[in-house]
Amino acid sequence: MTKQIVLASSNPGKVREINQMLAGLNLTVVPQSDFKVIDAEETGLTFVENALLKARNATRHTGLPAIADDSGIEVDYLNGAPGIYSARYAGKSATDDQNLRKLLDDLAGIPEAERTARFQCLMVYLRHEFDPTPIICQGTWEGHILLEPRGANGFGYDPIFFVPTHNCSSAELPSEVKNKLSHRGQALRALVSALGHTHL
């Protein structure tokens, strides 16, 4: 029997990415928007706090187990910014392109050697709203910020995130390669491995 899990996100790029990675498992991941769940207020000060807030909100409104992640990009020169504010760096209703442009503006004139950055993803799984032992997994993807966007795959900051191992931007990678390397791919694989059959 296929188990249904609610994904505490309405971001179509994220839903697509996670479903691609879960293909072949006996799990159907349904976005919370299918249940008319309103996004949780992200009031946490860390990625893990925000992920737990989102998962708890999704499971409370649906009665289903929930997966949530909070992810973003940390730039060393900016002391870890945008960090947890990555999705709203240029303002609450900013587009991906506006956020990306703000980051490029904030790094204007900064040499490549000082543009080191990483994507972070904290992914959590809650069996129910009051689950006292959530599964928490982390993925980290190292790189640096390009001077200009490159590539059309992916979303968010992918076009300006340079992947040294592949000598291109994240947005220039085929999705199956990106899913293997990415912070979200790492966190999700760790989560799937941790879930086993006992936690489902």
Could you give a short description of this structure?
The protein is an alpha/beta fold and 200 residues long.
Describe this protein's structure.
- With 200 residues, the protein is α/β, with parallel strands linked by helices.
- The chain has one domain (3-195): Maf protein (Alpha-Beta Complex).
- The chain is 29% helix and 24% strand.
- It is built from five helices and seven strands.
- It has helices spanning 12-22, 47-62, 96-106, 175-181, 183-195, and strands at residues 3-7, 27-31, 66-75, 116-126, 135-145, 161-163, 168-169.
- The chain has a seven-stranded mixed beta sheet.
- Strand 6 (161-163) and strand 7 (168-169) form a beta hairpin.
- Helix 4 (175-181) packs across helix 5 (183-195).
- The protein is globular and about 50 Å long.
- It starts with a strand and ends in a 5-residue tail after the last helix.
- The relative contact order is 0.15.
- This is dITP/XTP pyrophosphatase.
- It is an enzyme of class 3 (hydrolase).
- Mg(2+) binds at residues 41, 70.
Secondary structure tally: strands: 7
Order of strands across the main sheet: 2-1-3-4-5-6-7
- The CATH architecture classification is Alpha-Beta Complex
Globally, the shape reads globular
Order of helices and strands: EHEHEHEEEEHH
Distance between the termini: 12 Å
Strand content: 15-25%
The major sheet is characterized as: 7 strands, mixed
Would you state the CATH class? Alpha Beta
Q: Which runs of at least 5 residues are low in confidence (pLDDT < 50)?
A: none
Radius of gyration, in angstroms, nearest whole number:
17 Å
Total individual domains: 1
Which class best fits the helix and strand makeup? alpha/beta
Mean pLDDT: 92
GO molecular function: dITP diphosphatase activity; ITP diphosphatase activity; metal ion binding; nucleotide binding; ribonucleoside triphosphate phosphatase activity; XTP diphosphatase activity
Cofactor: Mg(2+)
Keywords: Hydrolase, Magnesium, Metal-binding, Nucleotide metabolism, Nucleotide-binding
Subunit structure: Homodimer.
